[in-house]
Amino acid sequence: MPWIQLKINTSSDHAESLSNTLLENGALAITFQDTYDNPIFEPLPGETRLWGNTDVIGLYDAETDMAKIIAALAGQDRFNKNFIHKIEQIEDKDWEREWMDNFHPMCFGQRLWICPSWKDIPDPNAVNVMLDPGLAFGTGTHPTTSLCLQWLDGLDLTDKTVIDFGCGSGILAIAALKLGAVRAIGIDIDPQAIQASRDNAQRNGVAENLELYLAKDQPADLSADVVVANILAAPLRELAPLINTLSCGHLGLSGVLASQALTVAQAYQGSFILDPVVEKEGWCRITGIKNNYCEFVSTQVANGDPE
């Protein structure tokens, strides 16, 4: 099956926003390419490396009326009628294989690696999560997932229970288990996410320690030492009444744009002592500790009970 490819020349500063515009106008996939074909160096974990002069390439169905797409783009303030672009037909290819070839092992924090299940692990002595996301969100390449993985790597999860709201591929819940958690609970609204999480848990040998629920079926008596939620701002605000009442200690939230961080933080600040917001590529991570958690831990330690 043939496809139509629209290539637009822009700068690295505008490439991300342009890619969003193309997606809003019907693009099925987006690729960034160096205009001058400079060598591509290995990016940092979770980083999307852009160049000084960048071509943003949108892939469209062959039946798409590209004249309408170009007219819509030309009508925007950032463009003029003669903006530099190229339209061409391309033959079908194995796009899934193309994506797989560009998903490389990535390190988060000091010891955690996320590795494609079809590639060799770079460090056998590290904490390795073998991942195949399927159709679910979560590979570690997106800044929000990267922020959450780095946060989990910095926690002492030994014998802890972790709840992952919006578990997607299961990447965060499985990483928590590999980092020492004794139990993880993954919740999502998408059945494909539940299946991907289950498959990845089996792939990593932690299926017996991971409970998975569709949101409509989640237990009423949820409780955990750590809650992580990498979703979007609106669902995070909606979940606040539930999460605020959970018996939990550490909280990690992401999927939040910098412009949304304040309103999301306000929904949780009454129940949690929040840390400074951490930002990466326009996305934010909000973390904190439950108000009475430190007192609870101190009491447990004083009584000789395990933390």
From TrEMBL:
GO cellular component annotations of the record: cytosol; ribosome
UniProt-annotated binding residues for S-adenosyl-L-methionine: T145, G166, D188, N230
Entries under Gene3D superfamilies matching the protein: Vaccinia Virus protein VP39
UniProt xrefs under InterPro entries: Ribosomal_L11_MeTrfase_PrmA, Ribosomal_PrmA_MeTrfase, SAM-dependent_MTases_sf
Entry keyword set: Cytoplasm, Methyltransferase, Ribonucleoprotein, Ribosomal protein, S-adenosyl-L-methionine, Transferase
Enzyme Commission number, as recorded: 2.1.1.-
Localization per Swiss-Prot or TrEMBL: Cytoplasm
Principal localisation: cytoplasm
Gene Ontology MF: a single term: protein-lysine N-methyltransferase activity
One GO term of the biological process aspect: methylation
Reactions that this protein is recorded to catalyse: L-lysyl-[protein] + 3 S-adenosyl-L-methionine = N(6),N(6),N(6)-trimethyl-L-lysyl-[protein] + 3 S-adenosyl-L-homocysteine + 3 H(+)
Family: Belongs to the methyltransferase superfamily. PrmA family.
Function: Methylates ribosomal protein L11.
PANTHER family xref list: ELECTRON TRANSFER FLAVOPROTEIN BETA SUBUNIT LYSINE METHYLTRANSFERASE
Protein name according to UniProt: Ribosomal protein L11 methyltransferase
Species name: Candidatus Fukatsuia symbiotica
Gene that encodes it: prmA
